[in-house]
Amino acid sequence: VSYTSWFLDAFNYAMFKKINVLNLSIGGPDFMDHPFVDKVSELAANKIITVSAIGNDGPLYGTLNNPGDQSDVVGVGGINSDELVAKFSSRGMTTWELPNGYGRIKPDIVTYGSHVKGSSLNGGCISLSGTSVASPVVAGAVALILSGAPKKLSLINQALVKQILAEGAVKLQHNNIFEQGHGKLNISKSLELLLSYEPKITLSPPYIDYSESYMWPYSSQPLHCVGMPSIVNVTIWNAISVTGRITSKPEWQPNLDKNGDLLLVEILYSQILWPWTGWMAVKISVTNRGCYYEGNAEGSIKLVVYSSTQNNHHRHTVQFPIKVKIAPKPPRHKRILWDQYHNIQYPPGYIPRDSLKIKSDPLDWRGDHIHTNFRDLYHHLRNRGYYIDVLGAPYTCFNASEYGSLLIIDPEEEFFDEEIYKLQKDVFDYGLGVVIFADWYNTTVMKKMQFFDENTREWWIPDTGGANIPALNDLLHGFGISLSDIVADGYIQLGEHSFYYGSGTTLDTFPQDDDTILISALLNDQGAEVIRKKTDFKEAPNTLPIIGLFQMNSRHRIKIDIPEEFPTLNVDVGIELNGTENDIFTYNPAINKRVLLQSTIQRGQQETNSSKDEIIKDYVGVQTLRKEGRVAIMGDSNCIDSINAENACMWLINAFLEYTMNSHTASVFKKYNSVIQQSRIAKIKTHPKRLKTSKLHKYSKVVDVNNKLRKRSLTKCTV
């Protein structure tokens, strides 16, 4: 155990002694430990070059450790003797910016960290591996490089060191930018750059090129019109001054000779650069004129930074070249929308792990993103020809008629009432398919997962379960679907397919019709094991419904009442199974019609009501009959999650998408359909409630920060 106060004392001592280079072979997931993070920035402001290990949680993506993931720290990854990023080395992207934005490039640089010889405490040598070994190699190299250019010592700062390391690095052939950063450490080249160095401002990455495999994931999918923008998060390194200013908006300059006018570029940026760094977020999309185009489009962003030194004021211009691959707009049945907006990870709150089987690390801190722990799923879908857009905004901000299916995977966030209303409308009126992979939720289990945090001196209780089932039930109420608070686990065999159902929920209610598909399995009550704290405790397994598929029709459309102008969140006085009436509350799922009507003018919102028989035309002019959409749901996400999957169930998401996109029901579903065997299914109706002790409202984008019983006003869509 280590305490933040220990590090603060050590950092203060380092500044007092005016050291030049500081190595930190430590790290953790809490990038919101503000006293620690701020003190690390203070080190940089005082010209102390901080070098830190990036973490040993590879080969999974989104596993960077703090402080190595900070923009004012040199984050170091490890490679092996084969010139490949080591399996243990943590990969990017940074998860600070999720769910609304996109992560930064990290690590900054890599060097040898596998089987490195070092001194043993007992004498002689010892072979060590880890980024904690690679980090001091870089720290020593930095000290060596600086000592080789004594005339440049007055210029040394964090940005300068990053610039010479990045520009001198050698790119590895078989690893992408989120694995290796700028490449392998090259001491001689970096020293050569320092000897001729003049203060400047550079960018990381220095350019973006969707045609380079090094630029994964940008290179993995071309852009097309009427899609969500692709986001590039650029770090600005200002070696001229510890502070800098961007006084005017960076300017997009399309290359008209190379189809740059087909790109729409939106730029967000930090007006103040401190210490030595800033950021620029670039959102890239394709205009409607590019709907039929296939090829590249190019241009650049002009960025002007003002800096001041002791005697002078500086104006420095930087260019950020952009090269994008464009493809013709794909048909609707090949387009998937990934819901990122409703995913939350630790920090800022106690979001527990999806699998209760893993007890060593209770925190879910990897971001739940299509390019982090669902990277394998992303590659699988791309290999099958699907195009995946990432939604970082509420459901009111997309046009459902453009997408075949919406993927809702393991959501922890609440839903706006307007989202609940719109999703029902999208499915029934616009034929949108919905695929859901949920996760466990049980308030008694959550209480059993509390622990005492030594740094904050507080008891921590999860703010939700593996997924926010009460919120998900609100969302699905209009479809007649709800999930239970049973926590089930076990190995499942469906024909030739087997997979582990790890800490999942079960279906509580589901529409009944001739077309209903309901798959049940014999599963253990894992929640009871956790509550009793006995791993050898086993209740008799129950046959529980875990998979449901249904073709929506007007007979099953449940009316959602329209309440008063400003709905409140009602306290539920009912008693929950495994809970108490004092610990739980529930939201009123009613809709604010006035706000909803106003939201129809926002970008992406359908402006007219259409019947299911309305004839529509896609972009190539083909007429299709609009029908109600389909819903496919499973109570667990572990088998598609790269972290927890014991036997990946990509075949299952294939079958789900074939059902929701093309109305094809896989034979395995027909074979194991248990609708006709309802008497064998455990009939336990347990509607989960929310914990009153939950602190989700303190960082939720939906719930009022000052009143957990109210929701915020609907977030506006950006144009």
UniProtKB/TrEMBL annotation:
GO terms for cellular component: Golgi apparatus. SUPFAM superfamilies: Subtilisin-like (SSF52743). Residues 3-183 form the Peptidase S8/S53 domain. Pfam families: MBTPS1_3rd, MBTPS1_4th, Peptidase_S8. InterPro entries: MBTPS1_3rd (IPR057060), MBTPS1_4th (IPR057032), Peptidase_S8/S53_dom (IPR000209), Peptidase_S8/S53_dom_sf (IPR036852), Peptidase_S8_Ser-AS (IPR023828), Peptidase_S8_subtilisin-like (IPR050131). GO terms for biological process: proteolysis. Residues 204-329 form the MBTPS1 third domain. Residues 330-554, 605-670 form the MBTPS1 fourth domain. GO terms for molecular function: serine-type endopeptidase activity. Keywords: Hydrolase, Protease, Serine protease. Belongs to the peptidase S8 family. PANTHER family: MEMBRANE-BOUND TRANSCRIPTION FACTOR SITE-1 PROTEASE, PEPTIDASE S8. This is Uncharacterized protein. It comes from Stomoxys calcitrans. The gene is 106094159.
